[in-house]
Amino acid sequence: MEINRRNFVKKAAIAGLGTASISVGAMNTTVADEKQKKKPITSGSGRIRMGFIGVGNRGGGHVLTTLQIGKVDIVAICDVSERSIATAKKNIAKANAPEPKVYTGSDFAFMDMLEKENLDAVIIATPWEWHSRMAVAAMKAGAYTGIEVPACTTLDEAWDLVNTHEETGVELMFLENACYGRESLAILNMVRENLFGELLHCRCGYLHDLRGVKFNDGLEYNYKPGQPLKFGKDAYAEAQWRGLHSIRRNGDLYPTHGIGPIAMLLDIHNGNRFLSLSSFASKARGLGKYVEDHGGANHPLLKTKWNCGDIVTSTINCANGETVLVTHNCNSPRPKQSDWLVQGTKGLWAGDWKSIYIDEQSPVEHQWESQESYLTKYDHKIWRGTGDGTEDLTHGGTDYMELLDFYDSVINKKPAIHDVYDAAAWSAIAELSEMSIAKGNIPVDFPDFTRGKWIKYREDKLFAPDEKFPPFTERYLKF
Ligand SMILES: NC(=O)c1ccc[n+]([C@@H]2O[C@H](COP(=O)([O-])OP(=O)(O)OC[C@H]3O[C@@H](n4cnc5c(N)ncnc54)[C@H](O)[C@@H]3O)[C@@H](O)[C@H]2O)c1
Questions:
Q1: What residues are paired with 347 via a beta bridge?
Q2: Range of the domain at 355
Q3: I need a labelling partner for 119 at 20 to 30 A (CA). Which of 10, 40, 81, 209 fits?
Q4: Signed CA dihedral, 437, 439, 442, 444: sign only
Q5: How many domains does the chain fold into?
Q6: What is the reported pTM?
Q7: 126 lies in some domain
Q8: Which residue from 85, 108, 136, 148 has its CB within 8 A of the most atoms of ligand 1, so it is best to mutate?
Q9: Is 420 exposed, middle or buried (0-12, 13-18, 19+ CB in 10 A)?
């Protein structure tokens, strides 16, 4: 194995700081860790008392995935939609699991659930505008909190999450499933093995035509041409709420699927951090045109002014000198892409082209080679041994890996690998991009949500070091 210069440099830097033996979780407040350790798993049986807030498309998927994992009892679910609750209950019954208690009837029924159920853990998968207040309440109730993406929509909300974690000592895991993708983790292994040299620049984004999801006929998840075009309270699932953000805001509304895996490669909050960002927005045409094309001549949404630029690009500057270009493009017709690119001093990976080029190593100078053999060679250990049925799980098994990690952290009282500071900084791109665009694309500073702790090396943030992590099959059987 090649000497890993990045690790060597990091360890040397840590030694220089006089913190040579930093323990796992050193980045979190020790007060927080101590408080969390004191709370026993409530059932006393080594099983997790689990609650869900929001069991729609995503939360319902998490319920299904959870039913495939042992040691978890779904004791309560909360949602304001009868349809979402009915589907979740049906799936729980189908798995022969005990019927959960249902909390509904009010937007704040989740408070009742948190107060009464003494939950070990909670997963929140509601509309974005609800995330931070629900997570704050869950942490205050002592439940290890898993939160869907993005964790929050404003900087104030991001600080609420950080402050509540530090005050209560309760962990928050940011459920950014893109960080568990097989390809992303293989690239992480390549970066750790110094294949691309010292990293200079990365590109990522969320380029996904979600126009059909933002409107529907109130019955189906995606809009089908010819059906009534509905939006807001008359519609179904994300069409009830997601498009409203494109009316009220102008920025990168959904940055974390892209920035999560890149933050891991760049060791963000593990000796590096985002310093500043500047953003640009194109004009907004996609959603208005969709209404013109599908809504009919008198559709009320024809008068709507859509505010969010169809393509928003943000450039982030990092403390260790790297730059990252993040793109948001969800209102245009296009196949789905993530715009991955990782450029180092020795070579680069271009994910959307499924290609790699390594200086003095690739067979033909100045020409791409296929990524395939590299993905096999650097496959992450958590994915090895998978195949039998994993591809049938949601997002090809990525969600299963994510929830295994979540429940493993809950039951073993581990600090979250993608923690409250990651949740805050990755999600903050949304409001920071809005601020930059509103002020004429000026650079805006990232708050340091870690209050200086980002500089420390935290071994567990390397994401389950390959040599220490059992493969999928062993984990599956053991859990
Ligand atoms: N990581 C991923 O791959 C992925 C995929 C899809 C969605 N998501 C995220 O998951 C979250 C939920 O998205 P979704 O697609 O499931 O949306 P959805 O609209 O299908 O589901 C949201 C659910 O929350 C419920 N809800 C709304 N307000 C509530 C309240 N006050 N109390 C209780 N329940 C409430 C709704 O009734 C609905 O059932 C979003 O943050 C979204 O960005 C992530």
A1: 358
A2: 180-390+417-455
A3: 81
A4: negative
A5: 1
A6: 0.90
A7: no
A8: 148
A9: buried
Q: From ligand 1's centre to the CA of 125, what distance in Å?
A: 4
Residues in the chain: 479
- Please provide residue 224's backbone torsions phi and psi, each rounded to the nearest 5 degrees: -115, 125
Per-residue confidence of the chain (479 residues) as pLDDT tens digits? 233 333 323 332 322 222 222 222 333 333 444 444 445 444 456 799 999 999 999 999 999 999 988 889 999 999 999 999 999 999 999 999 999 999 999 999 999 999 999 999 999 999 999 999 999 999 999 999 999 999 999 999 999 999 999 999 999 999 999 999 999 999 999 999 999 999 999 999 999 999 999 999 999 899 988 999 999 999 999 999 999 999 999 999 999 999 999 999 999 999 999 999 999 999 999 999 999 999 999 999 999 999 999 999 999 999 999 999 999 999 999 999 999 999 999 999 999 999 999 999 999 999 999 999 999 999 988 887 665 555 555 666 789 889 988 998 999 898 999 999 999 999 999 999 999 999 999 999 999 999 999 998 776 666 554 444 445 445 444 44
Residue nearest to atom 7 of ligand 1 (CA): 58
Is the distance from the beta carbon of residue 80 to the nearest atom of ligand 1 less than 6 Å?
A: yes
Amino acid, single-letter form, for residue 233: K
